[in-house]
Amino acid sequence: MPAQPSKTFRVGIIGCGTIFFSSHAYPLHKLENVEVRAVCDNKPQAVQAAASLFNCDGYDDYRQLLKRTDIDVVHVLTPHYLHAPMVIDAANTGRHVLVEKPMSITIQDAHAMLEAAKQNRVTLGVISQNRYNPASIAIKEALSNGSLGKILGQRITIPGTKPMEYYRNSDWRGTWDKEGGSLVIDQAVHILDLARWFVDDDLASVQATIANRDHPEIETEDTSEGLIIYRNGVRSVFLATNNFTYNAPSVVETQCEKGIALLEFDRAVITYSSGQEVITVNDPTTTLDEADFKAFIGRDIGQVAFETLKVWGVVFAPILWKVTKGTWGVTHFKQISNFYSSLEKGIQPEINGEAAIKTQELVSAIYQSAREGRTITF
Questions:
Q1: What domain range is 93 assigned to?
Q2: Contacts made by residues 268-272, CB under 8 angstroms, sequence distance 24+
Q3: Number of helices (H) and strands (E), helices first, in the chain?
Q4: pLDDT score of 322 more than 90
Q5: Is the domain of 264 the same as that of 352?
Q6: Is 261 helix (H, G, I), strand (E, B) or coil?
Q7: Into how many domains does the chain fold?
Q8: What is the pTM of this model?
Q9: Residue 220 and which of 129, 170, 288, 372 are 20 to 30 A apart at CA?
Q10: What is the CATH number for 105?
Q11: ω before 159 within 30° of 0 (cis)?
């Protein structure tokens, strides 16, 4: 007998900005069990481009999208401060939700999101795509299988850059009430998530500082450092900045009893005390084919997207026409695929709300420690 067709999930997209065009549209186009029915954005040019891409309906108010009866799953790809209310509203209408990082701008909002998903018996997934990079997986497996022995300590360095243009053309970046911070919650969160995932233990304490060294036009931080201590005794030190001259490779070095696991940019080097060395490098072509991507986006849509993103101060819009090997990888495809295959099987995705809130807890503790000038204990 022929195989039974899999369930088709009807999808609504809230937010048609950078992350939609660069990281969500292509996976949704490729997945056989997904059909995009509607998109929403408050910028007409963006919603028109997104609706044309999927030949679907477009809205300027997400509440209108949620009134539809033919939506099973909602992707929330909006500015940080909108994540919690939009996720909760979607969950309250019985929709599964996949939301971009950060989960929210406060730990209280994150718990409210979890509660809404639980009460409405829907699935909540949170994007942490770097966990699907081959380099990240290689280190996680080596730490988990015991070959490196007990973790002793960890260092994290995140030397990046963010020009003022990045903030000047945005009505929400660089603000406490809308972005929830800047460097820590928007850029460093990627690497902090991986580092915490590697240690895989609950937090014992966080002591941190933040500062604005060279971005006088924003309210929020461009520098942060601190000490994270886990209940198993692992001490993780970190330093992050947006004041370097370019986005240099971020590093997570995890020292263990039997060797060192070094994650640098898109490369993992695991060096055992015996002298054995294992190197893994991310290969973006495993999840995204450049020619196929170009054919899907199309020059007309790509140009509209490029101009739209340019207006918003996005300086890396050419990503639409090039497969990159950036720090953040191109592994949205893998995580989005896992989310939908998990829905189909009736199980939780690998990175659900319960998993994601642990990183939100860390980010919130960094800000609280800096704000109150004390060590936050758990």
A1: 9-129+289-360
A2: 268/134, 268/135, 268/136, 268/138, 268/139, 270/138, 270/139, 270/142, 270/148, 272/147, 272/148
A3: 13, 15
A4: no
A5: no
A6: strand
A7: 2
A8: 0.92
A9: 129
A10: 3.40.50.720
A11: no
Query: What average pLDDT does range 212-222 have in this prediction?
Result: 97
Residue 38 in domain: yes
SS3 257: coil
State the average pLDDT over residues 294-322.
53
pLDDT of residue 317: 40
- Shared-domain flag, residues 257 and 295: no
Task: Answer yes or no: is 65 within a domain.
Answer: yes
Query: Same domain, yes or no, for 75 and 114?
Result: yes
pLDDT digits (tens, 9 = 90+) for 143-157: 999 999 999 999 999
Q: How confident is the model at residue 314, as a pLDDT?
A: 44
Question: Residue 239, SS3?
Answer: strand
Q: Are residues 105 and 168 in the same domain?
A: no
Of the candidates 84, 130, 86, 124, the residue with the CA atom closest to the CA atom of residue 107: 84
Give Cα separations from 301 to 49, 95, 246, 273, 298 (angstroms).
Answer: 6, 28, 29, 52, 6
- Tokens 């999208």 sit on residue: 65
Residues 40 and 113 in one domain: yes
Considering the domain architecture, whether residues 29 and 105 belong to the same structural domain is answered as yes
Q: What is the pLDDT of residues 268-282, one digit of tens each?
A: 999 999 999 999 998
Nearest of 335, 299, 334 to residue 320 by alpha carbon: 299
In a domain, 3, yes or no: no
Q: What average pLDDT does range 331-355 have in this prediction?
A: 96
In a domain, 1, yes or no: no
Give the tokens for residue 357: 């809130």
Confidence of residue 167 (pLDDT cuts 50, 70, 90): very high
The two three-digit tokens of residue 277, written as one number? 């060395």
The percentage of residues in the chain with a pLDDT greater than 70, rounded to a whole number, is: 89
Can you give the CATH number for the domain in which 234 is found? 3.30.360.10
